[in-house]
């Protein structure tokens, strides 16, 4: 059940607890619960009961209570999107994000998204933060400014060449305003597209619509940038074709013009004290990448599947790759006690220093995110389906499986009445349970990877579409 490497890394107390759990009389049921969560790292514990009755006859079709469960509790998945907190639930979230983004690229009849959107103007754009000071990097050609050819795993990458001259205040304020900057960019992009074809913004809304799905990513220097799928539709979204003047080239030019526009921030109080005697402008960095998205199988690197996979990957991440932590920090002293690297620690301290000057920006609350307070993944209303719809499809599928397993498939859902009462009873594991759950998760993950590889190795029939 548990691999040798895992056993070797356990202390005596954890190993003893694990053996105690495995030897318990209800262990098989406990293991089944954890498998149903996908090997969740921090499951929610519930106590309660449910009764399923036939509406017409009042007959009890099924009665359930957690009294018979291991420890008297039912364990369900925590649902956390962050891979650093729960790899199992993050895997599910990434899968939902993948299908959401892909549906907006290839269409999906289950969600009334026509396949014709594959022929719409659409690009994959990456908008970055401006420079806050030179940092150690790995240029495509040559070496870093410091004279070193850094390795991929060099901890110096992304850190300032001169920390004392680095604009830490500007960096955290950019992160903090990044979500609003994106909204301003989208509004500006509509204006730029309209200007390209010589129509007003009102006329643009009557004939076309911008649709997008995006994800935020932290660079190693601790600055947020966005990856976005941007598409031109007709006025009602995927259901209507864009006007004849819409093209990928036009969309690309408009994105470049909108990204180059200077966006003035909201009113900045105490500018001199904050280090901005002349005020400051919120704008994107000079590094901008805009590439057309090609149909799957044409030999292009920027394919529909590659884009959906890329967005899904970063939807489960936060600021951990910068060296910070994935939970809130109580005060600036805590950042020192956590033993964080110098660069992320200075960014966190800048959040605490600037918080009194910008009380409405809640910089202290988001210090662990280096000031960023926006959504990591989001989309426009008509881009594709929603995460809620995808979750409901999965819930309905599991409910049908459960109905068949309980012999209730002969009763239509609207002919039964379910009465239930649930209470929160805690979360998480004991040390031994945690080790066993991690093993279950690895087993499930290995099974998924094996199945994926098997599908990938299957020969493609001649004439079949990929």
TrEMBL record:
InterPro entries: RepSA, RepSA_streptomyces. It comes from the Bacteria. NCBIfam families: rep_init_RepSA. This is Replication initiator protein RepSA. It comes from Streptomyces justiciae.
